[in-house]
Every structure is written in structure tokens, then in C-alpha cells.
Write a structure and sequence with these properties.
alpha/beta; Rossmann fold; 5-stranded parallel β-sheet; 5 helices; 5 strands; 63% helix
Amino acid sequence: MAYKILWIDDDADVLDSARRLFRSSAWELITVADAETAREAIGKENFAVIVADQRLQAASGVDLLEFAKEKSPAASRILLTGNVEIGVIEEAVNRGHVFRFVSKPWDNEQLLVDVAKAIEHHQLKMTQTGLLKEVSLQNRQLERLTSGLEQLVVERTMNVESSKDEAEQKLSHVRDLVRFIKDLSNLTSVDEL
């Protein structure tokens, strides 16, 4: 399965560099030059990694990564930036939950390593999501079984109580018969009846 990478940058030269870099990779690179097209793509496709430049014309990279976090939470998010500002870093971490920061110009080898790690992170999130769904399903099944067992215990308890009541009635009847027989044996004549 070829993992999809969305690369968002309004600089055509940067997009060309990204295409050349990922041309021989096992991943499918999709490039877009504006925020609106990026939002549409994020809404339609499942991306393993989303790379966004911080300085776009219509939106910031942090805004797009925050949108991506809501629409595609399993995607790993990478922020590209030409200059690192503490405020941008805080926003990216707090709002966009970025996986990595990449400075422009980037080192090709390091960027490929970062993307590979981002894909691993995506795979872990997908595995975790699958496991959570499986656990949730098993919990629901266990609740149904537990409920069924509880009902069975209630029914069995009612049967035991009913049997106990019947046994007590029979025992009482036998005791009455024994008393009657004792009383009869104590009689000396039929006239005493």
C-alpha cells in the first residue's frame, strides 16, 4: 500500500523540489498550492502525512494543520518554515499537534527520514485506532454476555426458591401426617376419634 503524502506550499519551486525528492520513493506525493484546495483534499483523501508551509497566502500552515487534525486525526503533520518563531512553534504544537518541524531549505536525506518516521507514527495511530475499536466491540459483547448471565442467575434463583417452597410445603405435609399417625397410635379405642 502506497501511503499518501499531502504537501501544501504556494511556492512552485518548493513543490517542484518536493516532487523530485519523492519521485523515486514508495509513497504517493500529492502537491497543492493553496489552502482551499488543501482543505478539499484533506476532506476527501486519507493521508498518512500532511506537510504544510507556515506562510501561505490565504491561511497559515498552523491553521491548515489544525484543520487536518480535526478531519484526519491519524495523519502525521509536519510544518515547513523558513524562520522559526517561538509563537509559531507554540501554535503548531498546541493547535496543530505537529509531528515535526522542518526548516527551509531542508536536507533531503533528513526530510526523507522525517517522513518515514511520520509514516511509522501514522501506522501506529491506525493500529491503535483499530485496537481500540476491537476492544470496544469486545467490551460490548462482554456486556451482552454478562447481562445474559445475570438474567440466567435470576431465573435459576427463582427456580431454586420455587423448589425450596415446594419442598417446605411437602415437608410440612409429611410432619402433619407423622403427627396424625402418632396421635392415632396413642389412641386406645376407635371411640376416641
